[in-house]
Amino acid sequence: MTQSDLIVEYLEQFGVEYVFGVPGSPLGPLFDALVRSERRGGPRAVLARHEAGAAFMADGYARESGRLGVCCSTTGPGATNLITGVASAYAEQISLLVITSQTRISEFSFGCFQDSSRDGVDIMSMFAHCTRYNSMVTHPNQLEKKLTAALTAALGNPKGPAHLSIPIDIFAAEADGPASFQGLHALLTTPATPVDCSALDRLHAEVTTVLSRGGRIALLAGHNCIGAGEEITRFAELTSAELVTTPRGKSAINPYHPLSRGVFGCAGHASARQALADDRVELILAVGTNLGEWSTSKWDPILMNNKLVHIHSDRTVFTRTPMARLHVQGSINTVFAKLNERLKGSGQTICQPGDFDPEDLARATYIPAGIEVRNPECCRKATGSGLLKAPQVYRELIRRLPRETRFFIDNSNSVPWSIHYFFHSRPECYHLSIEFATMAWAVGAAIGGAFANRSAPSVCIAGDGCYLMSGQEITVAVERQLPVLFVVLNDQAYGLIRHGHRATGSEKVEYRIPSVDFAMMALATGAEAYTIREAKEFDNIDWQALALRQGPTLVNVLIDPEEPPPLAMA
To answer: CB of 422 within 8 A of CB of 362?
Structure first.
């Protein structure tokens, strides 16, 4: 049993099915171990086409499976290529184990090929600032202890990538035996429910005082509310608190709930800002959000004032809210479960909207009743001829694909359009990665999501510029016959940059991209492909058959390049 086999044994304990990476000679022993693992039904290797794509796949896999994502690369440029995807996962707090190789220890500092130790191109220092744990293994006896430390950090609070750099001779060294810590997975994944009880008591007192005198409460839900949406929504129902989300928090709250008012922040809705600005609002509960630029509409004083109660599981984010009335640290689901129990028994219940069927509401009208969009015509049903608007594309995809379809939105025009105009009755199906805003993230992440769940399509929505950065990863979906739908919003430009520069730049800079036939590119890889130039061509595709297809499809959609995305809040 080698040290590489020991690594794979731990991955198997954690339920990891795939290791995404690009091979190289120093990684050879790990790939040997993965071949042995696959024969017995354990974790197996997936060959990406670029290391950043491997990290994006691991990210998407972690989001969809709820398990640890794992990616690897060879030394030197393999490791530096990986860093962008790792940095993106760090900013988004996605649990990844990142494994890079090194040349032999005995050859450090002598100018060996692709030396990435501190004596060569120092990848350890590069990874130090985008990981929760970062260490080089320099002796076989260190590996298991450092591996368990990395797993603990990756799944800790806050979550994020943990990096191990391992020389080839240690990968290949003999291990003393099987894993020493058989219960590590159970130890690290047992749900933690710590809550600052004193702060919770104060929060309950604040809430009941406001309600007793007829005041209002507003609630801003961020990305870390995912998984706690039911308890948060119940609190809103008990208190008549209007529900607002950050751009990433869209994944936590159903937009068709009667109390939902949309997104506050970048590309947000006027109805969301009105909910926070209402003079009757005495408390604003900012929950599970780091309150950065995009989620605060550039730190709008409507939000950032002494009405604010900041609730988060990670105490470090409280450094951004010195003006807050109260900080409450704890598991978000537990905080609201406890708060709801108290409110139900206190006689303070103000409102009970009652049962509602989000699927019925979504079928009745695409734009939710409580959300005000700036241009409803922009997402009307696509008809007739002429170039499409991006929101029309979203509407058609949501209406034609199964409800369980997952959507990964790339960092292009797609992001502001989707923040403002993407509405789905299953918000957990919506994925963004905008903290670091890495272009081409969704191309790999949708593939990783499909590895985690083949039961419905994973949809990557990307601009043409994004897709050109990483479109070769479609060949992984072809090879593995994954149900991935790549939708290229083709405006023949770096559209988001162009529209942003038009608003702020002093010169007429050209951001055009030459015309590319993305459908032909996809067909050349063995994927199925279509081009849509006008609305009626949506009817030329059998969407139900496409949703069932075990293999990728690309849809090249020509959109209006002159339609500016909603960059600022309405």
So the answer is: no
**Would you list the DSSP string of 32-58?**
HHHHHHHHTT--EEEE-SSHHHHHHHH
- 524 — phi, psi (to 5°)? -65, -25
SS3 287: strand
Q: What is the pLDDT of residue 379?
A: 83
Mapping DSSP to helix (H, G, I), strand (E, B) and coil, where does residue 488 land? strand
**Tell me, what DSSP letter sits at residue 401?**
S
Residue whose pair of structure tokens reads 């809103």 in the numeric block: 236
Both structure tokens of 150:
């990395």
10 Å CB burial of residue 504 (0-12, 13-18, 19+) is exposed
Burial 36-70 (b: 16+ CB within 10 A, else e): ebeeeebbebbebbbbbbbbbbbbbbbbbbebbbb
Q: How many CB atoms within 10 Å of residue 318?
A: 16
SS (H, E, C) 126-176: HHCCCCCEEEECCCHHHHHHHHHHHHHHHCCCCCCEEEEEEEHHHHCCECC
Q: Using one digit for the tens of pLDDT, what is the confidence trace for 386-419?
A: 889 999 999 999 999 999 999 999 999 899 999 9
Whether the CB-CB separation of 194 and 283 falls below 8 Å is answered with no
Query: How many other CB atoms are found less than 10 A from the CB of residue 315?
Result: 12
The H or E element spanning position 86 is helix 77-92
Label residue 120 by pLDDT band (50, 70, 90).
confident
At residue 381, φ and ψ (nearest 5 deg) are -55, 130
Exposed e or buried b per residue across 329-350, where buried means at least 16 C-beta atoms within 10 angstroms of its C-beta = bbbbbbbbbbbbebbeeeebee
Cβ neighbours, 10 Å, residue 540: 9
DSSP 17: -
CB 56 within 8 A of CB 449: no
> Maximum distance among all alpha carbons in the chain?
75
Token pair of 464 as six digits:
């043409």
Q: 339-382: per-residue pLDDT in tens?
A: 999 998 766 566 665 577 888 988 889 999 999 999 998 888 77
The string of pLDDT tens digits covering residues 296-328 is: 999 999 999 999 999 999 999 999 999 999 999
Cα–Cα distance measured from residue 380 to residue 376, given in angstroms and rounded to the nearest whole number: 7
User: Are residues 254 and 210 in contact, defined by beta-carbon separation less than 8 angstroms?
Assistant: no
Token duo for residue 4: 């590489």
Tokens of 182: 């058989």
Average confidence (pLDDT) over 200-223: 96
Backbone angles phi and psi of 324, in degrees to 5: -65, 150
Q: What is the pLDDT of residues 2-47, one digit of tens each?
A: 999 999 999 999 999 999 999 998 999 999 999 999 999 999 999 9
d(CA 55, CA 82): 6
How many beta carbons lie within 10 A of that of residue 387, not counting itself? Answer: 16
